[in-house]
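[audit] Reproducing an earlier prediction to check determinism. Same input, same settings, fresh worker. If the tokens differ from the archived copy the diff job will pick it up downstream; this log only records the rerun itself.
[audit] input (261 residues):
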Amino acid sequence: MSEVISIANQKGGVGKTTTAVNLAASLAERGKRVILLDIDPQSNATTSLGYARGDYEYNIYHVLIGSKKLSEVILDTEVENLSLAPSNIGLVGIEKEFYNPKKRNRELVLKEKIEEISDRYDYIIIDSPPALGPITINALSASDSVIIPIQCEFFALEGLAQLLNTVSLIKKTINPKLKIKGFLPTMYSKQNNLSKQVLADLTHHFKDKLFHKKKGKECIVIPRNVKVAESPSFGKPVIAYAAKSKGSHAYRDLAVAIMKG
């Protein structure tokens, strides 16, 4: 059975999609069978793996409304061992359907769809939208764990309590196995005092929930890195675009930490 990991934060611009794409690619690079589910209507994860919106006919929207099986929308990527279930702007239409109180088990739709393919992959990575709406609820309900990216900038911890409350509620009511895999500091700059302060705050409050490198006690941070920012425009994860960059090394470290459990 595969391990299902959601990447979630209701704040935009925190490196959520970047983390989903590059963690998935880094796990695949290490020989793991991985699929990335793009369930964000902005479909940035899909674009980041080289697909334009006109390159595919069916996407995760068709899966969620029941007109296609998940296996029928999966695309190959240029990264060996990495598959993609693409998204599309039409996914915004699913929100209305999920809000329908007459729809039974509407929080478990994605979980049911994933069950069809779960034995084919070692890891299922879910890129969720920057909101705590029905789509993100579905992602968390289907997941074993969640990684929460937090940018090392002003207002970094704003709204975090709401997300943690949502995770706690889902754990109590829908998905008892759901756990926080860890908090991931992103856009970190050694030259920036604010970055250092945010990292210190995260270490103080969530010391046991930060990821650490294979050797030593140094925690894993995703640096503010030009190559990481550039790679989506080339339709590649950073490990394929700039393999020796600091961003690539950071996401490889994260993959190793994930595989260690």
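[audit] rerun output stored. Observation attached for the diff report: The first helix runs from residue 16 to 29.
[audit] end
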